[in-house]
Amino acid sequence: MAALAVLRSSAPARLLSGSFSVHRGGLASWQHYQSRRPFSNNKILVELNESTGVAVMKMKSPPVNSLSLDFLTEFSISLEKLEIDRGCRGLILTSAFPKIFSAGLDITEMCGKSAEHYAAFWKAVQEMWLKLYGSNMVTIAAVNGSSPAGGCLMAMCCDYRIMADNPKFAIGLNETQLGIVAPFWFKDTMINIVGNRVTEQSLQLGQMYSAPEAHKIGLVDLLVPEDKVQSTAAAVMTQWLSIPDHARQLTKSMMRKPTIDRLVKQQEADINNFVSFITRDSIQKSLQVYLDRLKQKK
Ligand SMILES: CCCCC/C=C\C/C=C\CCC/C=C/C(=O)SCCNC(=O)CCNC(=O)[C@H](O)C(C)(C)COP(=O)(O)OP(=O)(O)OC[C@H]1O[C@@H](n2cnc3c(N)ncnc32)[C@H](O)[C@@H]1OP(=O)(O)O
């Protein structure tokens, strides 16, 4: 995986093309990254504090930060831009909305679309994972709300997870509850955090854990009051950034590269697998039922 296989100085620079600009107005020492690409609806707000080298990435795609193709594309571009910025050493990933970190993959992207669409969507999910799990930056998830499935995956990609101490907020890989299956690299990411036994049970049952339960099994590292999530993330970031970058990055790479390589080696096959799975009539039916139930719950 690019970001971990090489140190930041040799990262590809193609995203520094004219389609992005850095604005130095607004908040005193903050840069605002804004995409000028036509596909961007600015679903993600990135603020880089130049003095600390820490970027805060806020997901703000209403109503629930579901991971649509557009969202994932914008996310990966924003992340890559930070990755190649030598002034950025740490990333805090959070949500602009209270109560929801991310609702996971946008289910409407997996229902009633063409095989070509599913392939493009799944590639975007893979890219998000490869970039975030393989990031050279220190990554901290400030989980300020519920985070099922793909949302949980995003949090699990980070080096450290801080969650709001509210039993109403839940996190986990709930795919089986939708009648679908978490792919091997979702599973591997979870195993690397909580181990095989907990992952197996959790995946079979599609278990969602309340914040205290998630902390108990080690899925999140720290629980703090809701209004302290961001400040705690900043404090933890300072600790992590006190370690020399090269040593920490090489250690991170040593730990994560085997997991990343497993997907890289079979990325195309994984896309084909997803497309043939998601296009089955029975799977389409399950997803539609789940979506209808979500819409009817009000
Ligand atoms: C060996 C064979 C292996 C084969 C494997 C091969 C490949 C793998 C195949 C498939 C893998 C797919 C992996 C999938 C990962 C995912 O992430 S699936 C998504 C899972 N997400 C969820 O289940 C979350 C569902 N949502 C909720 O639980 C709640 O909405 C909430 C996030 C807790 C928020 O609750 P609340 O604040 O009450 O908001 P509402 O429920 O009212 O929702 C507001 C509107 O948002 C819509 N919505 C919610 N979540 C999603 C979503 N994920 N996608 C799209 N839309 C979503 C919801 O319907 C409401 O819409 P309306 O306002 O009613 O229009």
Map the helices and strands.
Elements: H1 2-5, E1 20-23, E2 30-35, E3 44-49, E4 54-59, H2 69-83, E5 90-95, E6 99-100, H3 115-133, E7 138-143, E8 145-148, H4 150-157, E9 160-164, E10 170-172, H5 184-194, H6 196-205, E11 209-210, H7 211-217, E12 222-224, H8 229-241, H9 245-265, H10 267-278, H11 281-296
Parallel strand pairs: 4-5, 5-7, 6-8, 7-9, 8-10, 9-12
Antiparallel strand pairs: 1-2, 2-3, 3-4, 10-11
Helix pairs in contact: 2-3, 3-4, 3-10, 5-6
The structure holds ligand L6WJOLX4.
Residues 63-64, 66, 100, 103-108, 146, 148-150, 174-175, 178, 180-183, 273-274, 277-278, 294-295 line the site of ligand L6WJOLX4.
Would you write up a description of this structure?
The chain is α/β, with parallel strands linked by helices and 298 residues long. It is built from 11 helices and 12 strands. It has an 8-stranded mixed β-sheet, with helices on both faces. A 4-stranded mixed β-sheet has the order 6-8-10-11. A hairpin with a 4-residue loop joins strand 3 (44-49) and strand 4 (54-59). Helix 2 runs parallel beside helix 3 and helix 3 runs parallel beside helix 4. The radius of gyration is 18 Å and the shape is globular. It starts with a helix and ends with a helix. The structure holds ligand L6WJOLX4. Ligand L6WJOLX4 is lined by residues 63-64, 66, 100, 103-108, 146, 148-150, 174-175, 178, 180-183, 273-274, 277-278, 294-295.
